[in-house]
Amino acid sequence: MMNKLNAELAHFKAQSHNFKILTLTNLIYSIVLPVIDIFVAAYVMRSSNDPVKVVVYQLTIYTGIPLTFLINGWLLNHFPIKVLYSLGMVLSGISMMIMMSLKTLDITGIGIAGIVMGMSFGFYWANRDFLALATTNDDNRNYYYGLETFFYTIIAVIIPVLIGWFIELWASSGDAKLAYIMVTGIVFLVTIAASVMCFKGEFINPTNKKFIYFKFHPYWYRLMFLAVLKGLVQGFLVTAPAMLIMLLLGKEGALGTAQSVGAVFAAVLMYIIGRNTTPEHRIYVFGTGLVLFTIAALINGILFNATGVILFMLFLLLAKPLLDLAYFPIQFSVIDILTKKEKRSEFAYILNHEAGLYVGRLTGAGTFLILAYYFSNEIALRYAIIIVAVLQLSSFWVAKGIIKKGKIMNVELELENSSLTKTITPNHSIL
Questions:
Q1: In total, how many domains does the chain have?
Q2: Within a 10 A sphere around the Cβ of 249, how many other Cβ atoms?
């Protein structure tokens, strides 16, 4: 066993300096992600007992993200990328501070906190995606995302349990808000630590200064369709678990425990998959994630009780990392091809990709709001997830087509480069 662990450690050490720094930065920041993703929504739910306010909070986050992607593109011409990346991490703590400072959770206050959190995600993901793209290649991206997912999932075992029961114990003494404030302070300190690690990297800004384009190669629109389908589910994955557990289980301790069920198994599985799979296996990993998410949605819709929520979380712990492990390398392989084909900056595609996600998120969250408004919150929580899960199943065939077309375009690029090389090589037979 020790020999195996030493071999895996040696494999990690063999990666580039920036690869290791980026992984460690994301590892530190991942400590706060369960807090941002789950407990902020739980705080809104506890304070207002209104799932609609939770969705409004999420919509303002999703509105802030693409706007910040756009701002980030302009700022990259003036500031080092690690400054903007660090800013995104620190802003998440500031957003939580704004939320905790609100005396009453009205729509305006929730909206402001949501916009700031959206800006945090925008700076974080825009620069994280570019750095991951620049630091990895198609051969080691499965390993990179498998390693990240392993750490994220292990942390998802520890943090939700610790914070969930910490909040619940303080709540039993009658001061739950103080517990949330203390957690917010810890989050802010962790974001500072992640920023310090980030500055140890030798990261380079995108070289091409133009980021905004309105016309792309037809191949890109296939990925944009896939992004819309991914965004459909993202509209629920951040807040739906917290809303379901707060409604059907009722306490943050149960929330943390449910988040941790099966997470150790999932973490080890993701690392093994990332370490041992190749680009050829991505479509199968992706398809498995889609099926597991659909099963999770059906279980929740059919049972809609405490058992259903725990099973939903269990399947989600497997489905979400499988989808991400396959999706990001597929996305980056498309960007790799088109940056060579269209001679554009990688960030131009990252920026445009966010627009596709935003359309999907609005559609997914809008589905919830419509069902909640015309029927009830229970109907929305029970059936909206099933609707988007079934729709997302079509992602399998979209992704399969993208991978197949990518192989063809790679061959075409190799032939073009070969022809260009022959054209510019002097003919030494002519004197």
A1: 1
A2: 17
